[in-house]
Amino acid sequence: MQFTDIIKRSLRNLQSSKARTILTALAIAVGTFALTLTLGASNGAKEYANNIVKSNFDPTELIVSKDPNLFSSQDATKPQVYNPSFGSISTFGGETRQVQYLNSADLAKIATTPGVSSVQPAITVSLKYITRDGQKKYIGTLAPYNSYQKPDLLAGTIPDNIPDKTVILPQGFLSALGFSNAKAAIGQNIRLSVQNQTNQTPSSALINSLAALNSTSNASQETNFKIIAVSATPSTTISAATSLYLYTNLNQVELLNNYIYSGTSSYQKYLTAYAKVTDGTNLTKLNNAKSLVKAEGYSVQTVVDTEKLITQFIGVIEGIVTLFGLIAIIASLFGVVNTMYISVLQRTREIGLMKALGMHRRDVSRLFRIEAGLIGLLGGIIGSIIAVGLGVALNPVISNKLGLGNSRLLIFKPSQIIILIIVLIIVAIIAGLLPARKAAKLDPIEALRTE
Amino acid sequence: MIEVKELTKIYGKKDAAFKALDNVSLVIENKSTVSIIGKSGSGKSTLMHIMSGLDEPTNGTVVIDDVDIFKMKEKKIDSFRSSEMSFVFQSFFVEANATCYQNVMLPLEIAKIGITKRKKMVMEALKAVDLQDKVNAKASTLSGGQKQRLAVARAIVNKPSILFADEPTGNLDSTNGDKIIDLLFGLNKSLGCTLIIVTHDPDIAKKTSMRISIKDGKIEGIEKGPK
Fold first, then answer.
1. Which domains does chain B have, with CATH numbers?
2. Which three-class secondary structure state does DSSP give residue A400?
3. What distance in Å separates the CA atoms of residue B45 and residue B24, rounded to the nearest whole number?
4. Contacts of residue A415, Cβ cutoff 8 Å, sequence gap at least 6
5. Is any Cβ of chain B less than 8 angstroms from the Cβ of A448?
6. Which of A34, A46, A263, B154 would give a disulfide with A325, using CB separation of 3.0 to 4.6 Å?
7. How far apart are CA B42 and CA B213, in angstroms?
8. Smallest Cβ distance to A358: which of B89, B97, B110?
9. Mean pLDDT to the nearest integer, B180-195
10. Using CB atoms within 10 A of its CB, is residue A17 exposed (0-12), middle (13-18) or buried (19+)?
11. What CA–CA distance (Å, rounded) separates A169 from A222?
């Protein structure tokens, strides 16, 4: 029998027992539904993580730390031995940990590593406040701008090299600082205030380098920054707080940072630094540079590593849901076996007739295997259509609820769904093997005698 | 020509052994009409099953046109049956949910006949049994007589050289039964196929050119010549 004839005959047989076929397919559809949604959620989460990483880290840079445990989990159940040369940080859980900081000598050493073109410390400045004449004072954070960030601008432009004493203002500060719109803010000055941690006035050289306006207290300085651009609130951020980051050039951030930590043990010490790799878009060169910096005794991560760290958690959740989906599919496959056995029993005389008319055992077996495969196909289509339909309908609601902006939580890739359905077909065919074997081995005479 | 030589068929083993056929030998000429008659359990259906290659003998051979069919591999016997033989059964065995067209198509699908040829062959077969107006009707909507005619159409669509009919009128009233018998004998003439009818009806047997009587697995007698 030709393959197309077997397909047609299988379809006709399935159609003649619609209820049984649909119920069996629905059992498969439950598992398919769970797996399709899992794949969609996993894709969405990975893309979201990817967006976060891509919009916050330069993919051609290495993230370097001196602390060997910074990029890996540390056993929090064991006490850490005090080291006077280490700095202290608080974890998100409130626990105090000691970490090794990078200093200027480390930065210089990393910068001379082959393949590394430049190194800059990873710093953000916690401003005492931001204000403007006649406006309230607001707390804020100043960070160095990186050209890969490419934020959406509401007004102004960002030059390749941001001049000193200029700042990119986030949209969130516009009305707070009394600007009617983004355009009106361009060219205006805002005042950024920093406070020295020791409450001692730092050296006059440092104050001069800041071009500070006036001392508001012994250890506090205000300095003018001119707004050159207003950035729109990004749809993807690490946290809501980064959408309020102000950006200027690295030099300005370092000066303010130096002012804050002057006279403290943290002065010019950094938790991490970014090492720019020459031709860093080339993964081989990036990984070579990573190995070389690592060999110098530093902990190093690429953007891909960082992304992996974020997606690790997603992977665990994905694994659990996938397991449930697979269990549902395995359970439904017993349904396929059962359905196909019933079908063989019901069609015993038909099988006998086909064999009497010269149908080969192999073709009889194939007929039932294909029927099982078609049930798998039907279940796969039903499950994935419902999942995609539900996903498309719920995406805006979920994105809104989770504050994902323009990102979607559920992203369905046709290729994945097609592969999933193909796998289901294959698995259903395997489930149909035993009933198909029984059908193929039926004695035609006995089969024709069956009432 | 079908040559049956010293055919023995034993079902079961040892104490439970039952001899369904006991050293049966006979020769059937091509294009002849043959009836195998006997009571229930006499072995007539077993003889038909072995002659058609559906069952294997315990001993003996069946040679069709100089080919010993039991020396063929299973796949080859299947193909041989598909191209040279056909069957009409007492219980019709039509697919109720399929149309008449789809029912008659089955042997052509099994024999892998090209799609372009099929339609013509199916229509010819349906016309031969006067069911051409039921092409798209589901078999479940047909009467008993029509179902058996449909089964006959399915049996002749592939133009077999041997047509086995196992109690073809057993489930029909006398009027429809007569029609089916007339149809089968007509097809024997028009198609030139050998018609082998298994029956316990002496009236049908009388119409055949060769009558094989079987009792307790043994040939009781063979009568030849038209009646």
1. 29-53+72-224 (3.40.50.300)
2. helix
3. 13
4. none
5. yes
6. A34
7. 9
8. B110
9. 88
10. middle
11. 17
Helix (H) or strand (E) holding A58: none
Note the residue count of chain B: 227
Nearest Cα residue to A53 out of A306, A341, A428: A306
| Nearest alpha-carbon partner for A149 in A266, A227, A243 | A243
3-state class (DSSP) for residue A259 = helix
Q: Cβ of B107 and A358 within 8 Å?
A: yes
The answer to whether the beta carbons of residues A158 and A232 sit under 8 Å apart is: no
Q: What percent of chain B has pLDDT over 90?
A: 41
Residues from chain B that touch A357, judged by Cβ atoms under 8 A, are: 81-82, 86-87, 106-107, 110
Chain B residues with CB under 8 Å of a chain A CB are: 49, 52, 54-55, 74-75, 78-83, 85-87, 89, 91, 93, 95, 97-98, 102, 106-107, 109-112
CA A198, A204, A205, A211 torsion-angle sign? positive
**Residue B163 pLDDT class (50, 70, 90 cuts):** very high
The pTM (predicted TM-score) of the whole model is: 0.72
How remote is the C-alpha of B173 from its chain's centroid? 20
Q: What is the DSSP string of chain B?
A: -EEEEEEEEEES-GGG-EEEEEEEEEEE-TT-EEEEE--TTSSHHHHHHHHTTSS--SEEEEEETTEEGGGS-HHHHHHHHHHHEEEEETT----TTSBHHHHHHHHHHHTT--HHHHHHHHHHHHHHTT-GGGTTSBGGGS-HHHHHHHHHHHHHTT--SEEEEESTTTTS-HHHHHHHHHHHHHHHHHH--EEEEEES-HHHHHTSSEEEEEETTEEEEEEES--
Inform me whether the C-beta atom of residue A295 falls under 8 Å from chain B C-beta atoms. no
Q: Pick the residue from chain A with its C-alpha nearest to B111.
A: A1
Low-confidence ranges of chain A (pLDDT < 70): 72-76, 85, 87-95, 210-218, 235-241, 403-406, 451
